[in-house]
């Protein structure tokens, strides 16, 4: 694949490191642009105390000079401000201090126990620190770089929350970009800020009960041309690549594209998007039930992806568990946590989609600098229009 990226760092370590390779030279990029995306990830009613500590800001360490990419790897660093409170307990070297009490009570629903068994770690902090959703700050930063690239090609990536727990108000606005814009005005990223109070009441009730909440969000991309991805091999199918990227986000347990599972309940004539043609414009669809993808290839309609996020596994009234040292029944351990993080996850979902789409564009167009890529894209769009 043209784009490769890596993330490194623990939740309470010194910071997070992100490296992305494969983006072309001469793409305008600034830390301010990335910081705006990082700030969006930190919003949302129901977030925990960590968000009051961290004010994520990126440092661009390499790959950019005078505001433009150089074509080489781009390295980013995001400091963990909470490191000051953890630098002894999370020290890289030296003797273990008495304050570094082992975490031995795995939380149901978390990577604690499965990761402890896999990596032979009796102190489960050695697992939970990396498994933490703090890592998604890296993916938002990397996704921001890809969003900046996609903007140059006329592609907009956005998102909004569909439901939290049992609260699922109807979404009146049909235009996807308008939904995103309205969601930006909402504490819960729902495309009708007047409905925030319904979500807030449920979240407050869950907090009082010592519970957490999940929900559903949608991520979309408009301006995507037909022809990205391929039908010829399983690992080149774009819908598969999108689904994998979304499922890799912490706590995501379900992904649908277009109608998703609803399509299984309908007749074929109610699912497949009929094709039309306009002279001078080319092909179009009368509907978008398949979410912009057919046979693993984009068809020119907006890409629409729906993700289901399970409730956060850390509960203030913990579930039953077993201490990995004593094997005695205990209540699961507690960490500082959110009641709900669905709005933040929707922003992470945008980045996941942007990473996949940027990769697919570069796979299709090739090129090492922006001017070359834009010219190739212009020629390809002429082909699409004249086909």
Description:
This protein is an alpha+beta fold and 387 residues long. Helix content is 32%, strand content 21%. The protein has 11 helices and 17 strands. The protein has helices at 31-41, 50-53, 83-86, 112-119, 125-131, 136-152, 176-183, 196-208, 238-247, 342-365, 370-386, and strands at 4-8, 15-21, 58-62, 64-65, 68-69, 74-79, 156-164, 215-222, 226-229, 252-257, 275-278, 282-285, 293-294, 297-299, 303-309, 320-322, 329-331. A 4-stranded antiparallel sheet has the order 1-2-6-3, with helices on one face. A hairpin with a 3-residue loop joins strand 11 and strand 12. Helix 6 packs across helix 10. It is globular, with a radius of gyration of 22 Å. The two termini are 27 Å apart.
Question: Gist?
Answer:
Helices cover 32% and strands 21% of the residues. It has 387 residues and is α+β, with helices and mostly antiparallel strands.
Describe the protein's topology:
Layout: E1 4-8, E2 15-21, H1 31-41, H2 50-53, E3 58-62, E4 64-65, E5 68-69, E6 74-79, H3 83-86, H4 112-119, H5 125-131, H6 136-152, E7 156-164, H7 176-183, H8 196-208, E8 215-222, E9 226-229, H9 238-247, E10 252-257, E11 275-278, E12 282-285, E13 293-294, E14 297-299, E15 303-309, E16 320-322, E17 329-331, H10 342-365, H11 370-386
How many helices does DSSP assign?
11
What is the total tally of β strands?
Answer: 17
What percentage of amino acids are in beta strands?
15-25%
- Overall pLDDT, averaged? 95
Radius of gyration: 22 Å
Low-pLDDT residue spans: none
| Amino- and carboxy-terminal Cα gap | 27 Å
Q: Which strand order do you get reading across the main beta sheet?
A: 1-2-6-3
**SSE-based structural type:** alpha+beta
Percent range of helical residues: 25-40%
Largest sheet: 4 strands, antiparallel
Spell the H/E element sequence.
EEHHEEEEHHHHEHHEEHEEEEEEEEHH
User: Which descriptor suits the 3D outline?
Assistant: globular
């Amino acid at each position: 694949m043209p784009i490769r990226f890596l993330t490194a760092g623990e939740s309470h370590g010194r910071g997070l490191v992100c490296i992305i390779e494969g983006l072309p030279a001469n793409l305008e990029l600034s830390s301010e642009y990335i910081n705006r995306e990082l700030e969006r990830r930190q919003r949302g009613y129901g977030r925990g105390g960590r968000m009051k500590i961290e004010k994520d800001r990126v440092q661009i360490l390499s790959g950019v000079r005078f505001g433009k990419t150089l074509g080489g790897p781009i390295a980013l660093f995001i400091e963990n401000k909470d490191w000051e409170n953890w630098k002894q307990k999370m020290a890289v070297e030296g003797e273990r201090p008495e304050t570094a009490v082992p975490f031995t009570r795995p939380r149901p629903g978390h990577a604690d126990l499965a990761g402890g068994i896999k990596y032979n770690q009796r102190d489960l902090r050695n697992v939970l620190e990396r498994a933490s959703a703090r890592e998604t700050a890296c993916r938002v930063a990397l996704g921001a770089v890809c969003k900046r690239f996609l903007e140059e090609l006329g592609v907009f990536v956005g998102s909004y929350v569909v439901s939290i727990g049992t609260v699922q108000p109807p979404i009146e606005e049909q235009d996807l970009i308008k939904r995103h814009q309205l969601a930006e005005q909402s504490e819960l990223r729902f495309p009708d800020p007047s409905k925030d109070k319904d979500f807030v009441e449920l979240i407050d009730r869950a907090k009082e009960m010592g519970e957490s909440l999940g929900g559903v969000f949608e991520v979309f991309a408009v301006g995507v041309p037909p022809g990205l991805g391929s039908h010829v091999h399983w690992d080149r199918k774009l819908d598969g690549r999108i689904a994998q990227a979304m499922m890799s986000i912490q706590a995501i347990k379900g992904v649908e594209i277009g109608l998703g599972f609803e399509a299984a309940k309908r007749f074929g004539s109610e699912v497949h998007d009929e094709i039309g043609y306009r002279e001078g414009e080319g092909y179009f669809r009368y509907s978008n039930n398949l979410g912009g993808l057919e046979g693993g290839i984009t068809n020119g309609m907006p890409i629409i992806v729906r993700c289901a996020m399970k409730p956060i596994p850390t509960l203030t009234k913990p579930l039953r568990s077993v201490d990995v040292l004593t094997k005695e029944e205990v209540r699961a351990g507690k960490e500082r946590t959110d009641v709900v993080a669905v709005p933040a996850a929707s922003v992470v979902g945008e980045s996941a989609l942007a990473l996949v789409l940027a990769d697919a564009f570069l796979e299709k167009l090739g090129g090492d600098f922006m001017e070359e890529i834009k010219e190739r894209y212009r020629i390809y769009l002429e082909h699409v229009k004249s086909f």
